[in-house]
């Protein structure tokens, strides 16, 4: 063959390859198994974009890595349920489980160690298949092939059985993922239909799932049960462990199809959903339709190159990209029936005009997922916001983390606000803007979740609110969003007020250490500060992160943050230090803080914007390098391809944006910060008249640095691009190279600028701290020298001894003074402008029993020795009251189920009253004991009961308090021994983010009055 013919033949092969790629369906690049290993918490089953039903296999319901019900470490399947959460850090759902079996009827699922004990079946991962809208697996124990597909509201099962006279389908209403059944029932109609209800309490406090199940073949026998006792041919069963078993005879390779429709409203609602969406029995057609719906949805972003067969690494990148895009479209979920009805936040039945949605993981998704929707699915984003506003109308609050029309209260901030604001500011809103503004303002003006202190003082005291630093930073950002909407609506007073609050992030920045740092109610910085210390489930100053990660969160005022650090060079050096630190967090339980590059944590949301901050200091090439590194090294197309929880699409939305070459550092600003595009050519909204194409010339693994750029054919030198440019028909082109261009987008006028400038006549709010007693001790023996201090520079302190409020007309504090009796001192700090702090009320107590030198009295405890917190019993008799700061060293801590204290007095004496103080800080896992009982004895052997105090478990609210429990002692003789028995509440209640773990009990001074 001559050279010319060889060239022609190669050209033909290349063209064939190109045409093959162009014909390749986008769904073929999606791997729903990504995130099912590691800590991704995704599910592999069948669903449609934003579908009500997610029909998927459950392999386990225990532990954190089974939040979705499935983990790739398992080798057996319990069954296939119809509701699942994608990538959450909390567990729920798993409603209405079905399982095909062969043989004897079994009521329990069995165990992973021995699946044969129950109806569970072993399987092999190589016999699993998953694609958008489809899942299948071969169940080894029963030789049954199970296939799943779905419509919006109906799960469709096809079970292919071997020849058997004992083929079964189990329906288990007891099964759920980390929830418990409140009520349920099964009712059997005829010989091919089952209807019922599963109502449960879990992460969602009150969830209703009505269902209708239809079989393609009549069953020949059935039984129902509530617990262990089967009732053969029973037509209805009610209870909390309701199950049904249905028997068929099957020929070899005979398929029995099952349709399961659900509704939050009623059985009739579920039936209407079934009749409207899946009246027939064509499984393959339903599967094909599901694939077509996904193909259209994925087609909102089209990767135009490269040629797959030439570069296998590009194939993997496309798989990662389209799998990420797939995960972006799973939540939120439609919650209304086909007739518009749904169960609302008030548990009443409402009718939506359009669709009503559930599953709003807003702490995660406000950052990138909703901004992505504003580009490729703005009509959906409007529906999501409308749903949030409906939630507000029904409950009085915008959702924080809404699940099945229940406010879980999980996570922090009021992050519905940036989502709503973004739509208004981008002029995409089709909802009632005035009502939306009312709802946003209501969220910001509440008093709970630390807002009372935040509004009053400009900061949140760390001892009075868990996760105080994170909350303050995130509230400040949300307030900026409110301010921008207020300005757009002409509400100038609100604009100035909320803009001022948006600067409150500065009140947590400690310039002496260069980090965001917690401070107490008196303004004192956390003395045990460790920037790598991670809070777990609300137990510290930060939310699922540490100070390294949160010290870069002020997206509303990045330029102001840079100034706090001392300017561009110091800020850039701080970013460098973040990425080069030892990748370690000082809490072994910090499973959420993962995907570490230094102290940067891609596996959780607080870090997601940080790599893009280099653009603000004129070093965009560092953003290009770091964002590319994170995308290329921390995402893969494998089962463990996510370095942290998927979090309802946020982890994937980060990858999608970064692949496009930009990211929304401030999600509601309408501005995207440019990084480095991953693909040669990508088109947004390709089938519309506003298609926008991003092209990267000379793109390769080594060429990630922007040499030059053009927008719509004109030279472009800015390190950001506005939303208004992207949603128009146009193009953004980059020329890439292997070395940084340190001139492109470097000049100040070409950098992004996110800054807050207060109106010239705005009132400057100064931070003013209450006075405090320097020693921190308010319990004393004999005399007490009182020394008052304030953290407010140059402020003067005034105080009173009576109940009158102090003012600048009260006694001026100029030197320490003595008291020799129990005394209340009220003090204020007043600055040079006459601005007065809150009143500090200091209650000094003179102890009524002196301690002799010879260890009097003696005290011992049965509590387990402390590791997390100290628990030396002597702290209970050290003449020092513990403060709200439970880390101050003055508290006796135990998380035992129960413990006892024995106090031996020096000699028998009359005791009139027994008192003991306990703290409650529910957000930090500290609860009051269930019971506290006091006993007395003369000889230390025979004890007489004095009395018992019983406490109620809080019902979901954040509570911080110090309570003193008192019992009068009417013993007829002198006593020498006192016993205090303390009983824990058990495990943390279901509403608590640490549910299932043992809470702490913190006790302080034991006071004996005689």
UniProtKB/TrEMBL annotation:
One of its GO terms (cellular component) is cytosol. The keyword Iron does not apply. Residues 29-263 form the Glycosyl hydrolase family 92 N-terminal domain. Residues 1-23 form the signal peptide. One of its GO terms (biological process) is glycoprotein catabolic process. GO terms for molecular function: carbohydrate binding; peptide-N4-(N-acetyl-beta-glucosaminyl)asparagine amidase activity. Keywords: Calcium, Hydrolase, Signal. Its cofactor is Ca(2+). The keyword Nucleus does not apply. InterPro entries: 6-hairpin_glycosidase_sf, Fn3_assoc_repeat, Galactose-bd-like_sf, GH-type_carb-bd, GH92_a_mannosidase_put, GH92_N, Glyco_hydro_92, PNGase. Gene3D superfamilies: 2.70.98.10, alpha-1,2-mannosidase (1.20.1050.60), alpha-1,2-mannosidases domains (1.20.1610.10), Galactose-binding domain-like (2.60.120.260), GH92 mannosidase domain (3.30.2080.10). Residues 269-737 form the Glycosyl hydrolase family domain. Monomer. This is Sugar hydrolase.
């Amino acid at each position: 063959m001559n050279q010319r013919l060889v060239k022609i033949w190669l050209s033909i092969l290349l063209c064939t390859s190109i045409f093959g790629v162009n014909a390749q369906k986008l769904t073929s690049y999606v791997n729903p198994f990504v995130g099912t290993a590691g800590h991704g918490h995704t599910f592999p089953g069948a669903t449609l974009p934003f579908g009500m039903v997610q029909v998927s296999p459950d392999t386990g319901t225990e532990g954190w890595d089974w939040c979705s019900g499935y983990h790739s470490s398992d080798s057996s399947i319990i069954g296939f349920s119809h509701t699942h959460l994608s990538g959450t850090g909390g567990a729920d759902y798993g409603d209405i489980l079905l399982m095909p079996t062969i043989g004897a009827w079994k009521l329990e699922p069995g165990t992973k160690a021995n699946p044969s004990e129950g109806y569970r079946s072993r399987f092999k991962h190589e016999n699993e298949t998953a694609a958008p809208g489809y899942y299948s697996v071969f169940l080894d124990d029963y030789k049954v092939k199970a296939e799943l597909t779905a419509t919006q509201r109906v799960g469709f099962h096809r079970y292919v059985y071997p020849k058997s006279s004992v083929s079964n389908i189990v329906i288990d209403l007891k099964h759920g993922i980390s929830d418990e059944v409140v009520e349920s029932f099964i009712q059997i109609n005829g010989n091919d239909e089952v209807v019922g209800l599963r109502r449960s309490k879990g992460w969602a406090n009150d969830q209703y799932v009505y269902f209708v199940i239809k079989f393609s073949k009549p069953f020949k026998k059935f039984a129902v049960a509530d617990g262990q006792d089967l009732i053969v041919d029973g037509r209805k069963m009610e209870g909390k462990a309701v199950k049904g078993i249905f028997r068929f005879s099957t020929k070899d390779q005979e398929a029995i199809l099952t349709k399961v429709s659900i509704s939050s409203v009623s059985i009739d609602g579920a039936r209407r959903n079934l009749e409207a969406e899946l009246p027939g029995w064509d499984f393959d057609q339903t599967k094909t339709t599901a694939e077509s719906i996904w193909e259209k949805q994925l087609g909102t972003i089209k990767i135009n190159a490269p040629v797959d067969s030439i570069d296998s690494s590009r194939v993997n990148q496309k798989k990662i990209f389209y799998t990420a895009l797939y995960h972006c479209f799973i939540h939120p979920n439609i919650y209304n029936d086909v007739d518009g009805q749904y169960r609302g936040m008030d548990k009443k039945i409402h009718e939506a005009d359009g669709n009503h949605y559930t599953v709003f993981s807003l702490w995660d998704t406000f950052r990138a997922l909703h901004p992505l929707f504003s580009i490729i699915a703005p009509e959906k984003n409007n529906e999501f916001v409308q749903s949030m506003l409906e939630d507000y109308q029904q409950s009085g609050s915008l959702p924080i983390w809404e699940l099945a029309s229940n406010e879980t209260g999980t996570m922090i901030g009021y992050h519905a606000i940036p989502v709503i604001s973004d739509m208004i500011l981008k002029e995409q809103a089709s909802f009632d803007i005035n009502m939306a503004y009312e709802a946003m303002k209501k969220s910001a003006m509440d008093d709970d979740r630390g807002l009372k202190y935040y509004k009053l003082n400009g900061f949140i005291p760390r001892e009075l609110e868990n996760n105080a630093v994170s909350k303050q930073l995130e509230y400040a950002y949300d307030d900026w969003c409110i301010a921008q909407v207020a300005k757009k609506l002409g509400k100038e007073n609100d604009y100035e007020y909320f803009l001022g609050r948006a600067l409150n992030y500065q009140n947590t920045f400690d310039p002496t250490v260069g980090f965001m740092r917690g401070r107490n109610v008196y303004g004192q910085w956390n003395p045990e500060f460790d920037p790598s210390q991670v809070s777990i489930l609300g137990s510290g100053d930060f939310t699922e992160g540490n100070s390294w990660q949160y010290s870069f969160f002020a997206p509303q005022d990045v330029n102001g943050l840079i100034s706090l650090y001392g300017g561009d060079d110091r800020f850039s050096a701080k970013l460098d230090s973040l990425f080069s630190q030892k990748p370690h967090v000082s809490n072994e339980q910090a499973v959420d803080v993962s995907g570490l590059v230094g102290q940067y944590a891609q596996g959780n949301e607080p870090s997601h914007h940080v790599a893009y901050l280099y653009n603000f200091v004129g070093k965009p090439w560092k953003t290009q390098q770091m964002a590319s590194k994170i995308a290329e090294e921390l995402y893969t197309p494998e089962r463990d391809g996510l370095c942290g929880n998927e979090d309802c699409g946020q982890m994937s939305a980060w990858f999608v944006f970064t692949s496009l070459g930009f990211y929304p550092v401030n999600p509601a600003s309408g501005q995207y910060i440019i990084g480095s595009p991953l693909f040669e050519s990508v088109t947004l909204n390709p089938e519309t008249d506003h298609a926008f194409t991003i092209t990267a010339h000379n793109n390769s693994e080594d060429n990630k640095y922007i040499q030059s750029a053009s927008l719509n054919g004109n030279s472009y030198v800015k390190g950001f691009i506005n939303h208004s440019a992207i949603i128009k028909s146009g193009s953004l082109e980059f020329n890439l190279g292997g070395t940084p261009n340190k001139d492109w987008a470097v000049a100040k006028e070409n950098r992004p600028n996110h800054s807050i400038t207060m109106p010239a006549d705005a009132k400057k709010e100064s931070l003013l701290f209450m006075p405090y007693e320097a020693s921190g001790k308010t319990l004393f023996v004999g005399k007490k020298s009182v020394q008052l201090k304030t953290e407010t520079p140059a402020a003067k302190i005034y105080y009173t001894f009576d109940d009158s409020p102090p003012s600048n007309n009260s006694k001026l504090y100029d030197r320490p003074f003595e008291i020799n009796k129990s005394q209340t001192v009220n003090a204020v700090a007043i600055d040079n402008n006459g601005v007065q702090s809150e009143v500090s009320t200091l209650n000094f107590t003179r102890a009524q029993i002196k301690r002799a030198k010879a260890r009097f009295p003696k005290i011992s405890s049965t509590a387990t020795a402390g590791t997390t917190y100290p628990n030396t019993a002597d702290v209970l008799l050290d003449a020092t009251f513990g403060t709200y700061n439970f880390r101050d060293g003055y508290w006796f801590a135990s998380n035992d189920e129960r413990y006892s204290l024995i106090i031996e007095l020096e000699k028998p004496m009359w005791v009139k009253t027994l008192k003991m103080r306990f703290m409650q800080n529910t957000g930090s896992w500290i609860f009051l004991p269930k019971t506290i009982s006091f006993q007395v004895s003369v000889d230390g052997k025979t004890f007489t009961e004095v009395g018992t105090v019983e406490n109620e478990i809080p019902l979901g609210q954040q509570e911080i308090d110090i309570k003193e429990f008192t019992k009068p002692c009417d013993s007829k003789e002198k006593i020498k021994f006192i016993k205090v028995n303390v009983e824990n509440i058990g495990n943390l209640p279901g509403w608590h983010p640490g549910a299932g773990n043992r809470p702490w009990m913190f006790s302080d001074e034991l006071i004996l009055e005689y």
